[in-house]
Specification:
Elements (H helix, E strand, L loop, with lengths): L14 H11 L8 H14 L3 E5 L2 H11 L7 E4 L6 H8 L3 E4 L11 H7 L4 E7 L8 H11 L2 E5 L7 E2 L2 E2 L6 E5 L12 E5 L2 H10 L4 E2 L10 H6 L5 E2 L10 H11 L2 H19 L5 E3 L6 E2 L5 E5 L8 H10 L15 H5 L8 H7 L2 E4 L7 H18 L2
Parallel strand pairs: 2-3, 2-4, 4-5, 5-8
Antiparallel strand pairs: 1-9, 6-7, 6-13, 8-9, 10-11, 12-14, 14-15
Helix pairs in contact: 1-9, 2-9, 3-4, 3-7, 10-14
Length: 391
């Protein structure tokens, strides 16, 4: 048994990251300063997007995307149930209605055929989640969105650095949202970003993240440029916005992390390849399918228990791993299982594939600072339990 627990995910912070944050703390701006603009330029350069808007979380990025897309009360937004709740909550924030489409049982991503079944005259957007970093079938989703005049929002919280047919995530959906939580590929501590090629949508997101405030006299509606010269303190609230700003402290950390993203992704892929070799063909374990169009950055490594081959429940397997100091996690409880959604009339049985997958999946440790012996411990623990519980 291991001496110390192995978490399913963990940030990698070096002295250069600490120095970057310390540099901001010694500067004139700890928020609303130049690091935000610098970060947004870095994200555009990395992804190929024309515009990036830094925000204080991936959830804020999703909310900003829905607002920037003009989605409002009574509109419908199709998304997957096998995701973090923010993928659906972003619609609720604007008075829209989340509609859950089932997933593909092999990739665990939203199934385009199921999306099509859910489209109605009220549908305005699709929020497609790159589950575990595995990129959605963007060509099929784009075709559906174009045919029905829908906005394609990619929830790429897991997928910075992933590619779709060689194109970097962030460069092909109408709006792409990233998360920089500590377990993600790169971290800002907390943070998110919205990327797009539409300048007007980016501008609306910028207003939205800062209370809807406009300081640019050329864009004001109640004051001329000449008047603004006389009252330089004046600003206008042009929409109902939020305080979704990312502080410069977080931006500096993320800029530093972005210099190492390719190394982080390469190490994630190495560990995932080690797992693939060990688990492929292991009786009792099923693996997420790698789609031919997706070059995944491998945010999560998800195993699925073959309940026909094993005599244990997922819960028993989870706790047995934990007893061996291997800490797994479940990604995710279907969103509509939660009381908030039950109160809104959603019921179990909506997406039977997602529910079936949820019952048998675990995310095992995967993060770039893991050593080979850590991965070997995980493999040994899973293999031991498969032998123990084999029917």
């Amino acid at each position: 048994m291991r001496d110390t627990p192995l978490p399913y995910g963990k940030q990698w912070i070096d002295e250069d990251d600490i120095a970057a944050v310390a540099g901001v703390l010694r500067s004139d701006f700890v928020t609303c300063g130049p690091k935000i603009t610098e970060l947004e330029r870095v994200l555009c350069d990395y992804t190929g997007a024309a515009h990036a808007v830094a925000l204080n979380s991936g959830t804020a990025a999703l909310h900003a995307a829905v607002r920037a897309a003009g989605i409002g009360a009574g509109d419908e937004v199709i998304t997957t149930p096998l995701t973090f709740m923010a993928s659906a909550n972003c619609a609720l924030y604007e008075g829209a209605v989340p509609v859950f489409a089932d997933i593909d049982e092999e990739t665990y991503n939203i199934d385009p055929a199921r999306i099509e079944e859910k489209i109605t005259p009220r549908t305005r957007a699709v929020v497609a989640v790159d589950y575990a970093g595995e990129v959605v079938d963007a060509d099929a989703i784009r075709a559906l969105c174009d045919a029905h005049r829908l906005v394609f929002i990619e929830d790429a919280a897991h997928a910075i650095g992933s590619k779709h047919r060689g194109r970097m995530t962030g460069s092909y959906a109408d709006l792409t949202c990233f998360s920089f939580h500590p377990v993600k590929t790169v971290t800002a501590g907390e943070g998110g970003a919205l990327l797009c090629d539409d300048g007007e949508r980016a501008y609306r997101a910028e207003l939205f993240r800062s209370h809807g405030m406009e300081h640019d006299a050329s864009r004001m509606t109640q004051m001329t440029a000449e008047q603004a010269k006389e009252e330089p303190w004046y600003y206008e609230q042009q929409m109902l916005g939020y305080n979704y700003r990312m502080p410069d402290i977080n931006a500096a950390l993320l800029i530093s992390q972005m210099q190492k993203i390719d190394r982080f992704i390469a190490r994630r892929k190495e560990i995932a390849a080690k797992y693939d070799a060990a688990f492929s063909g292991m009786r009792g374990i099923l693996l997420q399918k790698r789609a031919p169009w997706s070059d995944a950055a491998r945010h999560l490594y998800v195993i699925r228990l073959d309940t026909q081959a094993l005599s244990c429940t997922r819960g028993e397997f989870y706790h047995a791993l934990r007893d061996m100091r291997i800490y797994s996690q479940i990604h995710y409880v279907p969103v509509y299982y939660f009381p908030e959604y039950q109160r809104r009339g959603y019921g179990r049985g909506l997406c039977p594939v997602a529910e079936r997958v949820y019952d048998s999946i675990l995310s095992i440790p995967l993060f770039p600072k893991m050593e080979d012996r850590d991965a070997d411990d995980v493999i040994e623990a899973v293999e031991t339990l498969c032998r123990k519980y084999r029917r």
